[in-house]
Amino acid sequence: MEHKMEHKMEYKQSLPVFSQSITPRIIIHGGAGNILPANLPPAKYKLYHDSLLRIISNTHYFLTSPSSFPLHKTSSSTTTALDAVTYAVTQLEDNPLFNSGHGAVFTRDGINELEASIMVSSGKKKRGVGLMGLQHVKNPIKLAREMLIRGEQDLEGGNGEHRGPMSAEEVAFMQSHGAQGHSQLHKYSAEKLAKEWGLELVDEKYFFVQARNLWCCVP
């Protein structure tokens, strides 16, 4: 027993000591379709390159300057990783060069159906959420963020399935504050929540970009 205890103490002492100060890193991936160097002129390449650098720069400023973009922030006094990720992806969704949001890829049926997911390593009851088949939510990543945040109330004490029948007041609360315990939602149910939560909805034509249509859907 003594030998085991000594061995355990030695192992504990050998663990690295991490500093309390953490320098955040931002990594983005700008999906742009099946584009090869052979069909991407230098000027077009520069357009993509400069856009990615601008998004990185904007997000870094957002992350390190908490008071700069109050409309995008949570009630926290500091900008969180969740805030920064949402802000970065929103810029990708708003830029028609990239294949999400405005400029999204087309399905085999020739329509735009959007997806988004967001994950955290700790701090939330739901560690990750996903959305599929969206056709009217301007920024799917914002809806995913809301699902994650509102999931705190949604799962408080368990949803109705786990704790028995709910009162009418509890049902109304769940419908307005969360996704009824779900971590993934599809199309109509997801867009219904987006409308209830006041997120911006657009006509499905908003996502159409002719260049993306040519890349994806022309034989």
TrEMBL record:
Record SUPFAM superfamilies: N-terminal nucleophile aminohydrolases (Ntn hydrolases)
Domain of life, per lineage: Eukaryota
Molecular functions (GO terms): hydrolase activity
Cited Pfam families: Asparaginase_2 (PF01112)
Listed GO CC annotations: cytoplasm
InterPro entries: Ntn_hydrolases_N, Peptidase_T2
PANTHER family linked to this entry: ASPARAGINASE (EUROFUNG) (PTHR10188:SF43), L-ASPARAGINASE (PTHR10188)
Protein name, per record: Uncharacterized protein
Lineage: Eukaryota, Fungi, Dikarya, Ascomycota, Pezizomycotina
